[in-house]
What we know:
Shape: globular
Bound molecules: zinc ion
Oligomer: single chain
Number of domains: 1
Amino acid sequence: MIKLPAPVYPWTDIYWPELAKAGGLASVEYEVVDHLPFRAKAHAMTWRGRVLLRREWIAPALGDMDGNTINPRHLWAIETMAFHEPYHVIEQRKMPWRSYLLRYIWQWIRGGFSYRNIQEEIEAYAQERKLADIWFKWRAPLTGLRSRPNW
Length: 151
Ligand SMILES: [Zn+2]
């Protein structure tokens, strides 16, 4: 079971009330996989309510810890796992899986087969940016990072 650094859980629930209402960050399940569905080259994908993390991508954030917990210095992993993918988890809990998948594919088609034009992704990235900016200001001094990394 992959875990985020402990302070991320209560913090995210405070700054993201909709996630808290949906069960909180602690209710989000993560699984490391060799390949994402459709062999997608994305970093992570929320599939049937669980967040799948592509091994090649997540390995550096796990390697220098106990193998199960994300190193707090790896803000890129926290950003995806805590501030982006839970957006999809919330959406997937609102409706049956098939309805969700069809809606997502329809948004992709309507957006000219571009991932970045999918309405749900636009919203998920907006949420990610918002929380990452606050998290970085609050957390950076504790991790020894002086500037927000580019990722
Ligand atoms: Zn997404």
